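Quick illustration, no need to memorize.
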Amino acid sequence: MGISQSQNLKTDPEERQRPYGVRVSLLSGDPFRKLVGPEWHRLHWYATAAERDAQLAEMSRRHLYSRSGDKPALRFEKVENLVESHGI
């Protein structure tokens, strides 16, 4: 029998390494930067490069309900924690 609420499991953060990431930041001309600051960014970490790439494709795609003239105002960059991925 499987676990019905797997998000409630307690796992040790050191036990599960997530060396592959995506940095989400705002484009330079975005007016929202005045509210959150020019250095705002958010990092999302994943266990494998394939998982990261799949999520990056999902994050950066055009939203289903976007208007025809809407353009994404976010920049997505692949990042990697070399200490966790290669032991450097």
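The longest strand covers residues 20-26.
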